[in-house]
Write a structure and sequence with these properties.
seven-stranded mixed β-sheet; 2 domains; alpha/beta; Aldehyde Dehydrogenase, Chain A, domain 1; Aldehyde Dehydrogenase, Chain A, domain 2
Length: 482
């Protein structure tokens, strides 16, 4: 049984259900302890007691701890990628990239520990000086989703520790297996007891305690829109009147615009990558393909041919390009969206069928769905499906395409395929998204630059790179009168 980690020790949970992989539901990855409310409170108490030690930890020791984690993640890339592929369903072609990214994030923040700075300014009052410094928040709760169960925890935990906080980490209940080895590495990184804690389990049992405990000073959450709103409400309405900082990443309905002058081969490849890789289970997935009328039919024909050629199968098979959907619940949600799209008048060009057994293995396999004849008001174009489902929307011209792209409550990522520098410059100005991709898939970001969106996709400070300090620290202004 894989246990939770609190106050420097491994401990059992209230129960430990088996974890089944989506490529072969007969298989069992392991049994992972689920914490109850009392055990979560103990983890919070441990982090709270250790927060002073975390803040006082010498910067070189802090940097060394993060570098240790980075080095071990990268050294174990093959095994961690295999586990990730087995548990979450990401293909073996993609899984190593996530693991490497996690290692690089820890390495980046190992350096960031030593790059922290403050300001010393003259005061408007004679003889005084003003010092501006950053201090850790204290206890940070990290709540992560199942779709990137190694990389997303890395880009939250690494900066939290780099800036001197104590962490209580709650991974997604669907993917504890990928989160556990990261926690085990952290347990050996030389951090003081209580600075890092792992509590696995359901959101309604673990997450609710983290949201409402006044000792938790900040909550970094990535997940569904509805849960994100509940996180926000809890953080500002705590009974003791002390609000918590919160950072929310809640998904997207990302457009990829194909303009009339686009290179068709480039457009198709970018659409395939953004819409279907990682099973479409990415908040940055290209779920809306907005195509100018003059190239629409040729684009659809080419994309349908390429889509049908992609091989869906066991995530750990060398021949597989697209793995299974993560679990039965997500599969049912995807199929409901597909059925509703057809009822609303969208035409299914290919895919959209459940294959319960593939190559002799029972799993959550779904053929890649491509819809045409859709308009932006359809549910399929307004709600995040989070599966291998893409729609094509016909636009009259560039003006119409950009208007459609912005007609959504989300604003995470947006892309355009064009050969025009003029249109590329226009895209940067006009698309309402936190990240804009030009001739690149909407999914796929670098770890040393900010990640995040606007409108209903994100709230709070950006994640990753030096901008993470805005969330994981608080500013203090000190007036000095010698």
């Amino acid at each position: 049984m894989f246990q939770n980690y609190t106050d420097g020790a491994w401990c059992e949970g209230a129960d430990a259900p088996a974890n089944f992989p989506p490529s072969d539901t007969r298989d069992v990855i392991g049994e992972y302890a689920r914490a109850n409310g009392q055990q979560v409170e103990q983890a919070i108490a441990s982090a709270h007691a250790a927060s002073g030690r975390a803040a006082a930890l010498p910067v070189q020791q802090r940097a060394d701890a993060l570098e240790f984690v980075a080095a071990e993640i990268l050294a174990r890339c093959h095994d961690l990628a295999d586990l990730l592929s087995r548990e979450e369903g990401k293909s073996l072609a993609e899984a190593p990239g996530e693991v490497v990214r996690a290692g690089h994030i820890f390495r980046y923040f190992a350096g960031e520990v030593l790059r922290q700075s403050g300001e010393l300014l003259p005061s408007v009052r004679h003889g005084m000086a003003v010092e501006i410094t950053r201090e850790p928040v204290g206890v940070v709760a990290v709540i992560t989703p199942w779709n990137f169960p190694i990389a997303i925890p890395a880009w939250k935990i690494a900066p939290a520790l780099a800036y001197g906080n104590a962490v209580v980490f709650k991974p997604a209940d669907l993917t504890p297996g990928s989160a556990w080895p990261l926690s085990e590495i952290l347990s050996r990184a030389g951090l003081p007891s209580g600075v890092f804690n792992l509590v696995m389990g359901r959101g309604r049992e673990v997450g609710d305690v983290l949201l409402n405990d006044p000792r938790v000073g900040a909550i970094s959450f990535t997940g569904s829109e509805s849960t994100g709103r509940r996180v926000a409400q809890s953080c500002v309405t705590r009974p003791n009147g002390v609000m918590a900082k919160f950072q929310l990443e809640m998904g997207g309905k990302n457009p990829l615009v194909v303009l009339a002058d686009a290179d068709l081969d480039t457009a198709v490849e970018r659409a395939l990558n953004g819409a279907f890789y990682s099973m479409g289970q990415r908040c940055t997935a290209s779920s809306r393909l907005i195509v100018c009328d003059s190239v629409h039919d040729r684009f659809v024909d080419a994309l349908a041919t390429k889509t049908q050629a992609l091989r869906v199968g066991d995530a750990r098979s060398a021949n597989t390009q697209i793995g299974p959907v993560v679990d039965e619940g997500q599969l049912e949600q995807d199929l409901e969206f597909i059925t509703r799209a057809g009822a609303d008048g969208a035409r299914l060009v290919c895919g959209g069928t459940h294959q319960p057994v593939l190559d002799g293995q029972p799993g959550h396999f779904l053929t890649l769905a491509l819809f045409v004849d859709t308009h932006n008001a359809m549910q399929i174009n307004q709600e995040e499906v989070f599966g291998p489902v893409a729609t094509v929307i016909r636009a009259r011209d560039a003006d119409d395409a950009f208007a459609i792209a912005n007609d959504t409550r989300f604003g995470l990522s947006a892309g355009v395929v064009t050969t025009s520098l003029r249109e590329a410059g226009r895209v940067k100005r006009e698309l309402q998204a936190g990240m804009v991709m030009i001739n690149a898939p909407t999914a796929g970001v670098d770890p040393h630059v900010p990640f995040g969106g606007r409108k209903g996709s994100s709230y709070g400070a950006r994640e990753q790179c030096s901008y993470a300090s805005d969330f994981y620290t608080t500013l203090k202004t000190t007036y000095l009168n010698p």
